[in-house]
Amino acid sequence: AIQMTQSPSSLSASVGDRVTIICRASQDIRNDLGWYQQKPGKAPKLLIYAASSLQSGVPSRFSGSGSGTEFSLTISSLQPEDFATYYCLQDYKYPYSFGQGTKLEIK
Amino acid sequence: QVQLQESGPGLVKPSETLSLTCTVSNGSISTYFWSWIRQPPGKGLEWIGYFYYTGSTNYNPSLKSRVTISADTSKNQISLKLSSVTAADTARYYCARGSAPVYWGQGTLVIVSS
Questions:
Q1: Which of A48, B68, B92, B104 fits as disulfide partner to A35, beta carbons 3.0 to 4.6 Å?
Q2: Tens digit of pLDDT for each residue in B41-97?
């Protein structure tokens, strides 16, 4: 099974900061990677698909990049509503697998 | 837009079978992949498996011997059955549309306890 490793596992930042979250795959997954945002008590929300495509309705401050085994999610200027937990998901090969999550907290 | 709603018992005894239903509104299940994903309290997400309208399925090997995902097209529902449950199966269970899902249900919490 493909292992997805996210870093950091937690991150403290301030409103207006630029932050980047990394996701590494244990093998080449081309660009078959999505990024999700999850707030407490809510279902995950798809932000980015195919590594770098912005899901409809998602603010442009979110961006994704990478291919192969290393990927990143960048939030260009943090807003109060962005403090949440973020997960990557590889949908290249079954069983699909998530990263362990990155909790983004207010500094 | 499509809506998904999970339902089923919130409490299941150890060794019994967990059975959940996902009712889909404003869209037919006779297309797309339909996934089940779970999340233990305070922990990360785990992909359980999918059902495709052609009848094909794929399950996480970590659960494969215990899980069945099926559909009832007459009711527009996707179901999940997980047998021989233990406390480790306590989680919020989500149904979702697609392999990298856009649409998710709100999830239903299932506690395994005697």
A1: A48
A2: 999 999 999 999 888 999 999 997 999 999 999 999 999 999 999 999 999 999 999
Residue the block writes with tokens 């079954």: A94
Q: Which of B71, B66, B63 is nearest to B95 (CA)?
A: B71
Q: Do A95 and B100 touch (CB under 8 A)?
A: no
Q: How many CA atoms lie within 13 A of B39 on its CB side?
A: 22
Is A40 within 8 Å of chain B by CB? no
Which chain B residue's Cα is nearest to A43? B106
**Interface with B, mutate which of A94, A102, A103 (most B CBs under 10 A):** A94
